[in-house]
Design a protein that fits this description.
Helix content: 55-70%
Keywords: Membrane, Transmembrane, Transmembrane helix
Radius of gyration: 23 Å
Oligomer: single chain
Largest sheet: none
Number of helices: 15
Shape: globular
Mean pLDDT: 84
Order of helices and strands: HHHHHHHHHHHHHHH
Distance between the termini: 34 Å
Number of domains: 2
Transmembrane segments: 88-105, 117-143, 167-186, 206-223, 269-293, 300-322, 334-361
Low-confidence stretches: 67-73, 371-380
Number of strands: 0
Length: 380
C-alpha cells in the first residue's frame, strides 16, 4: 500500500477529529446557562466547562482582555495571542494526526476483522496523543495570552499542557472508526504485497516483552510517589526557569501510586489491577504489531506502541474512576480521573518501547547468508 492510497483517509480522519473537538468547544458557553446548571448540577456543569474550554475558540471572560492595565491596545494584543494559540492548536492537531495515521494505515493495510480492529485501536490511541501534542505546541502562545510574565514560565507551561485531554478520548474513537471504514471502502480492490519475512511466535513475544519492560520501568519506578516527590523538589534554582518538577512529571510518569499504608491491602490491590491491565494492553499491542505490520519499520512500530500505551493509560484511569465512584453521590463526572495525567509519558515511553521491539524483530528476522555448500547446491 502506497502513501497515495492512505493520504485521503488520514486527512479525513484528522479533519473529523478537529471538527468534533471544535463542535464541542463551541458549545462551552451553553454550559454556563441556568438550564445546564439545573440539568447537570453546578459542580458537574463546571467540570464539563473545564473540559470544553481548552478547545473553545471564544475568548475567555477575563479582565485582561476587557480592562487591561497599561497602554491602549494592550488587552487586544493578549486577545490576539489567545486566538493565535487556538489556530496553532487546531492546525497542529490536523497535521500531527495525519502524519501519524499515514504510516499506521499503510503498514496495517489489508483485509480481516482483526487487522481492522487493530487499526481502529492504533488510530484511537494516536488521536489522543496527537491532541495532547497539539495542546503542547500551542501552550507558549496560551501562556503568553494570560499576561503571566511575572510568574514562572515552566509551571505555567505545565499547567497549559495538561488541559484539554478529556474530550479527545471520545472524539478520537469516532475519528479512528471513520478513518478505518473509509480506508476499507476506498482500498477494497487493493491487494497488499506478501510479507518477505514473517517473525516467529517466539520473536514476537520476545519483542513484546522487551518493549513492555520499558513501559513497566516508567510505571513501577518513576510513577512511585517517592520518586515523584524527588522529581518535584529536586530543582530549587531561582529564576523564571525554576521549578520544572511539574513539567518533568508529565513526561516521565504514566500513573501515580503509593505503597499500602494499612493492613487491609485489598483495595490497594484493586487499584493496582489497572496498572496490570495497562501492561497487558502494551504487551498485546506490541505482540500483534509484530505480526500484522506488512513490514516492521521504526515509525509504524513506535506509533503503534504509543497508541497501545495511551489506551492502557486511559483504561487504567477509567478503572481508578470506577473505584472512586463506589458509594459516591456527587455524580460520575466529579469522580472521573483525568486521562491526561499519563498521556505525555505514554508518548515518550511508547516511542522507546516501540523502538526496542522493532529492533528486536529486525535483528531476529534478518536473513542469514547461506552456507557455501548450500550456495553450490543451488542450480545456476
Amino acid at each position: 500500500m502506497t502513501y497515495r492510497h492512505v493520504l485521503g483517509p488520514a486527512f479525513f480522519g484528522a479533519l473529523l477529529l478537529a471538527g468534533l473537538l471544535w463542535w464541542a468547544g463551541s458549545s462551552a458557553h451553553a454550559l454556563s446557562l441556568p438550564g445546564a446548571t439545573r440539568f447537570f448540577g453546578p459542580d458537574q456543569a463546571n467540570r464539563l466547562l473545564a473540559w470544553t474550554l481548552p478547545w473553545s475558540t471564544d475568548l475567555p471572560s477575563s479582565t485582561q482582555f476587557t480592562r487591561p492595565a497599561g497602554a491602549v491596545g494592550h488587552g487586544a494584543d493578549y486577545a490576539a495571542l489567545s486566538e493565535t494559540a487556538m489556530r496553532v492548536r487546531y492546525a497542529a492537531l490536523v497535521l500531527l494526526f495525519s502524519c501519524g495515521a499515514l504510516p499506521l494505515l499503510r503498514r496495517l493495510s489489508g483485509r480481516g476483522v482483526r487487522r481492522a480492529v487493530v487499526s481502529v485501536a492504533a488510530l484511537w490511541g494516536w488521536g489522543i496523543a496527537a491532541a495532547m501534542l497539539a495542546v503542547t505546541v500551542s501552550a507558549p502562545w496560551m501562556v503568553a495570552s494570560g499576561g503571566s510574565a511575572t510568574f514562572r514560565l515552566l509551571p505555567g507551561l505545565a499547567s497549559a499542557m495538561s488541559q484539554g485531554r478529556e474530550l479527545p478520548v471520545g472524539a478520537a474513537l469516532v475519528a479512528a472508526a471513520a478513518t478505518t471504514g473509509l480506508m476499507t471502502l476506498l482500498c477494497r480492490e487493493a491487494t497488499s504485497e506478501p510479507r518477505p519475512v514473517v517473525p516467529t511466535t517466539a520473536t514476537a513475544r520476545l519483542a513484546a516483552t522487551l518493549g513492555t519492560v520499558v513501559v513497566a520501568f516508567a510505571l513501577i519506578v518513576l510513577s512511585n510517589d517517592r520518586v515523584a516527590g524527588r522529581i518535584q523538589s529536586g530543582f530549587g534554582s531561582g529564576g523564571r526557569l525554576s521549578e520544572p518538577g511539574d513539567l518533568l512529571r508529565q513526561w516521565v510518569q504514566l500513573s501515580a501510586w503509593t505503597m499500602p499504608t494499612s493492613p487491609a491491602s485489598g483495595r490497594w490491590l484493586l487499584y493496582r489491577l489497572g496498572d496490570v491491565v495497562l501492561l497487558a494492553l502494551v504487551w498485546w499491542g506490541l505482540r500483534l504489531l509484530a505480526v500484522l505490520l506488512d513490514r516492521v519499520t521504526y515509525p509504524a512500530y513506535a506509533l503503534g506502541s504509543v497508541a497501545a500505551t495511551t489506551l492502557g493509560v486511559v483504561v487504567s484511569g477509567i478503572w481508578s474512576s470506577l473505584l472512586s465512584y463506589q458509594g459516591s453521590t456527587g455524580g460520575p463526572l466529579l469522580y472521573y480521573v483525568s486521562v491526561g495525567s499519563g498521556v505525555s509519558a505514554a508518548l515518550v515511553f511508547g516511542i522507546l518501547a516501540g523502538s526496542v521491539s522493532a529492533l528486536t524483530v529486525r535483528l531476529r528476522t534478518r536473513p542469514h547468508p547461506s552456507s557455501p555448500a548450500a550456495a553450490q547446491a543451488q542450480p545456476a
